[in-house]
Specification:
Blueprint lengths: L10 H7 L17 H5 L4 H5 L8 H9 L2 H113 L6 H15 L14 H6 L15 H4 L8 H9 L10 H4 L2 E7 L5 H21 L3 E6 L8 H17 L2 E6 L7 H10 L6 E6 L10 H12 L4 E3 L5 H20 L8 H8 L13 H14 L9 H12 L7 E4 L6 H15 L4 E6 L10 H13 L12 H18 L4 E6 L7 H4 L11 E7 L13 E3 L5 H14 L6 H10 L8 H12 L6 H8 L5 H16 L7 H11 L6 H7 L5 H13 L3 E4 L2 E4 L2 H11 L6 H17 L7 H7 L4 H17 L10 H17 L3 H18 L5 H16 L3 H19 L4 H16 L3 H17 L8 H21 L4 H16 L3 H19 L4 H16 L3 H18 L5 H16 L3 H19 L4 H17 L2 H19 L4 H16 L3 H16 L16 H12 L1
Parallel strand pairs: 1-2, 1-3, 3-4, 4-5, 6-9, 6-10, 7-8, 8-9
Antiparallel strand pairs: 11-12
Helix pairs in contact: 11-15, 12-13, 12-30, 13-14, 20-21, 23-25, 25-26, 25-27, 27-31, 28-31, 28-32, 34-35, 34-36, 35-36, 36-37, 37-38, 38-39, 39-40, 41-42, 42-43, 43-44, 44-45, 45-46, 46-47, 47-48, 48-49, 49-50, 50-51
Amino acid sequence: MGTGSSFQRGHDEDDVLGEEYSSSQGVIKRIPIEVKPRGRLGLRSVRSLGKPKGGSLRSALSIDLENPEVEKIRKDFEMYRLNKENEHANNQKKVQKLETENKRLRAELQTLQKMCHKLRDERDAAIEAEHQALVRAAAFESDRDKIQRQFKIFRETKESELQNLLKARRDLESKLFKVAGHGILDDTESTSKVDASIVGSNPGDWWTALESEPSMGSTTQLHIPVSYRGPELGHTLLEMEGPYLNVNKDDWTAAAASLATIFPAIPESLQTNIIRVFISSPSDTLEERDIFMQEYGPKLSRLCKTEGHFYLPVYMPCQEGDNFAEQERYIHARCHQIDQSSIFLAFLADQTELYTQNDYNLGYVKNPGTKTAIFCFRPSRRDKELPAEVSNLRKQVKESAGAKIIEDYTSPLEAAEQVFIEMEKIIKFELGVDTKEADSGEKLLELDGPSALCGGCLWDINLDYEQMESLTFAGRSTCELGFEKYYDRLSAHVAAPGPLPPLLVSGPAGSGRSLLLAKWIGLQQHKASNMIILYHFVGSPSSCSAEPLIMIRRLTQQLMQQVTSPPALTCDPLRLVEEFPKWLERVSSKTPGGVVLVLDSIDRLQNAESHLKWLLDPLPVDTRVIISVQDNTCPSSWKFWPVVHLEELSNKNIKELLHAELASLGKSMSQDEEMRLLTHCRTPATSYPLYVILIATDIARCNSDEVITHIDSFLETKDAVEVFKKLLYNIRTEYECDGCKGLLKNVLHLILASRNGVSESELMYLCPDITWNNWAPLCDALLDRYILTYRSGLLVFAHQQGREAAMEMFITDSDGSQLRAAREKLIRFFCDNKMGRCGELIALWQYIGMERSAMAMVYYDACKNMEAMVGQSSDPVMLTRVADVYEALGRYLRDLAMLNEALMPLQRALEIREATLDPDHPSVAQSLHQVAGIHAQQSKFTTAELLYKQAMEIYEGAFGKDHFLVAKELEALSVLYQKQGKHKLAESLRKRAINIRKHSRIPRVTCGYIHGADVLKKRVLQLEQLTVGPNSADLARTLNEIGVLYYLQNNIEVAESLFKKCLEMREAVLGPDSDEVAQSLNNLAALYNDKKQFEKAEPLYMRAVEIRRKLYSDNHPSVAAVEKHLAMLYKKMNQLSKAEPLYKHAVNVRESSFGTNHPSVATALVNLAVLYSQQGKYALAEPLYERALKIYEESFGTSHSRVAETLRNLARLKYDMDEFEVAASLYKRATEIRENGATYPNKATSPRTCTCDESFMLNRNQMM
């Protein structure tokens, strides 16, 4: 068998037996058993047993197996084997379980795969259905466009036919009048048609003439409510006795709205909203100047910011040097800053500097009345004589009376304080800020709510400033550029009969589109005074002017100013876009010349097509829209409109433009230089106005020896962008010195990163290293080269090409990090200063992704923080002001249909007012009304009813039961009851409200434009007091005009005081029997008449009649007008016997003026007959009625409304005379005339469809 040494051991066997067997002399034979148990058998014990020599291995092992330890090992092995078997069984079960789970998952996977296939099929089917729907939609849109075009053709055809019919009708009427031989129509009749059409078409939108008297037959005899004015149509107070002759209240409305119309001829210094203060201060007044600028400058800045203006102090230290060019630029910039400043402030002590005398000459001495000036002279020491130049300056200032001089102070701090006091007064005067706070009750009557927070109307004045400056800048060119043919096209489009689609003015960038529109607007504003022209010039695509909603909101506000008492403007963007076309149609239909809407660069608007879908629909008949776009960015849906395409300039036009621009700057060009430029300007990009103007402007401002160099550099450019780059490069090279390297780059970075531009005061804060000595010359260069311009006090790029050039030159990184850094700097600044625009609120919250409810909570928390600050800061915050802010927030949220969120601030406003004011204060009633409105919209009718009743009780206690605010609560309760089905109760309240409004004086003016006119008139009054003295005829006239403005605003007390002061001044200056005194007497009497103080009005009217009878004949219209008002007064006082001779005299006056058979005579006869009827003198009244009826039938025909009205009056008379059958027949005839379409005044025909004569008569009638 072999020895044990013949067995080969592997490496694994050493691990089992260990190292002890390596030295043993026994024989080891491999045993075929499992390895792992073999290690546990403890074979080490075998070595300790005696092994017989020569014995077999089997016998040796048999001895070991009989050992008790072996049994133990066997048992362990059995247990180990059983464990392994159990583990194996368990593993088998797990395998079976996993196989089962695998089968289940496979089944589910197959199910999901089937479902996925099904969804894919459905998706494919949906895509196919969508495609088919799009095809059908495209076909529908095509059919719709086709139908619209057909409809427009049909409408234009019918419009033309209508014009022919109207013309034929006018020809027949004129022939009838010629045949009848009655001469011209009564002006009052024509006036009645226009006024009645306005009132009848939309009651409550237009003022009726002050003290206009309806026919007494229609009001006291038959008591039949009619929507037109009756026969009594004589001149009214404001027609003959107002501040302007022949101006009635409708004309006052138009005049107030026209305050927003800005003509390009207005100087820029009057348009800017920057209060620029130039400070002249030698070095020895450093202490006074520093105290004023550091301590009081921020206060003045807050004052100006509150009124929407920028406060900009300009201080340029004296600069001397050897560089002649730099010194010349410094002097020019210093003079320009003084010229542009609103206020000149000078500190002077014991010495002057190089430019002090020049500052005084430009700022005040040479033109003492053109600029407001404040001089702070340090008191001179008695032991020290002042230098001659200082003494002369002080003497010159004191001899020029009018400047404010401060010289009585003991310390620099006191001097700075006195300067601040005077400066605050001047700035408040400039901004029209009242120093006297109005009583809360007066505010409530004037504005009816927290609208005072926005100046009486919710409009952003900055937008109007911006558009006003855009119009002026766009039309700045001195050359017409052959635009006459384009003017004719635009004017023809406006004059053509409507409706018409918008007119498209197209052309590439720099082709003069904005210039054309600005020039045309200026021409139309001068020629067509009866036309409303609204315009909007879009700036950069990122600015507010490129926000469609802001544009629509501003235009809607301007349209709303054309109606009396307009409703609150909505804040909801969807409603805003929806209501704008309705306002266009409403205003244009009532305006003689219609509405013209001019939109420039409209393709820069953000999402223009989605917000201007109303342009694709048929426009109102009296509305014309003119828009300008670039050729390459015009939307495809607009290309079907009529187009005016701007062509390149011819050589002749380029030459004219060059000479005109150079001549305007006092420069000229040689023939050789001119030929070089004309030769270069042959390509389309170099033949447009902007390219030529930029080159001419730069050449005019460079030295004569540099002209050739500049022309050569411009000859290398291909378009306006490259010209702007050349200009920027030249400016940077010329104006940046060692101390201001990178200034131009930093400034342009901020302007590029901003949305609407950056003001100069903001630049001074954001760039601490900037000084006026290096900024003023650089700014002038940028403005003169048309690189930058001002928009609402902010520096912006004047042209889009200039912006592109700045981007290419100064934005050198590709990742935009430079712009981001500048934008972050602006964000930090604006967050610290809390600046922004009210009109951007919705867009702001949408931009940052915050929901409306979260936005409401942010504002509510801000209001709570404001409330917590009451009494804590140095600037006191009144709780009543906090309540106004809460209410403004609530109304804002309510307008956004966020009723639950709106209820919280409105409720808090109510709580504050109840706690701080008297519980019966009208402001509490106002809050109750707002809260009740929320509950009513939430269908909580019981709560709303209680709140409305509580508000009505407060108003009744404060103002009486016949106040218009009581009527407002009654109307609200009527609507509430109507919703609950309580119709009888609702009807009774509505009738009571109508009755109150008929007899109460409702505030006629609640818009911001009249408020602005009020401020302007007060400023004129103060200026006249300074120039002409305390008493003068001109000053009295201004007092009368301001009194009329306050009268229109229902501020009766102030108007009364002004009328009295005007009367006293006219009596003292012009004498007691002058016509102006009679005018003041008449106005004051009208005011007392309106206040129902008839006993005070009667002697004033009588005295006015006496004065005018002395000055004019008894039959003069001025005498008749006052007598008419006096007769109306007697009628109100029920003193009919005193009114009778006045009405008789009115008949005689009209007979002598118009003849015995004129309709105006019939009007006077009817009024006298009605008076006789009221007195019971039926026998005297009957022939007057019959005579008036005959005149009306001969003048207007037997089916006219005047005939029907006279028949009804006569029927009433016969009824009172117990002649019932005659009364019935007369009344039947009157009813038949009315049912058969009597010519009651209807809406006037569109002015664009009238002939020249008819348009003239229409305009004339509306001004009478």
